[in-house]
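Okay, any thoughts on this one?
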Amino acid sequence: MTSLGAGRLALAGTLGSAAAMAAMAVGSLTACSSSSAGAAGTSALSSDAGADASVGSTGVAENFDAPFDGQSNLTLKWQVTLQPAPGYGYGDSGVGVNQGTGDGGLDTLPGVQVCIYGNSSAPCTTTDDNGLFVLGGLSPRTNTVISLTKSGYSSILKAILTGSADMDGTSNPIRMILNSDPQPPIGMTVEWSTTGVLAFFALGPQDGGAGFTADVGASVTLSPSGGTGPYYVTGDGYFDDAGTALESGGLGYYYNVPPGNYTLTFHDSVHNCAPIDALFGGYGFPDPPTSVQFPIVAGYTTELVGVICTAKPLLVEAGP
């Protein structure tokens, strides 16, 4: 396992919106990569099998199954907040709908229906006045898709690998945009009713090793290829039309992605990147060494999938 240090996972302010979206909770946090729990599906979701931990060729430890503490009916606690329209900037530099707004997404959303996607037998729940929900009936160490819907807002999917104990993701709210927000500034129409959207991120070490920030320079490959993108987000919240890798905003998007199961692979010549499997894998189904899997469903944004990247070991040649 690759230790991320004790205390809260520190993210630089320059990460902007990604800091609010990709920060994780903690106490003492350790990030691991995990084997894929089967193909990324939206309803038939299988558990990891076996128990092993070994260091792969990337030098990042692979945790193939977390210890099971005997629970078989887990709960997931999370919070839902409002997100500014992607691509229109933040704060005083923002334009249009985002002019003068912050990037923290602090306005909580009550009344959001939260369900286990594709499992009609599992009871849904609803966010309270503080945007909080507790969803029960989850199996341990299982690829699971959570859906979030509210009239007037974007519908969201969260692809997660459940933990081996009750889960709490409230330090990193799930964020929804208003349907009344303008089309993303990508130069083409987004077909919301027939395709889906993907939002992704990668975190890397800050200079000096104190915490994590955007993994600037990391790029991605979507398999199978589809949709339009990636569109990388600048530190002030705009899309960089000429961008070819993650920037200080730490985020990227694909639009008009046909429904199906996908793998996103991260490429970084400077860092080792690994799927996040700390407390629970809340950022896509981990697919080591450098990929995450997830579903795309028409009318939904799959949010957020991503990795944490750490410095590659320094190799020093031995003397004669």
Observations:
- The chain has one domain: 2-311.
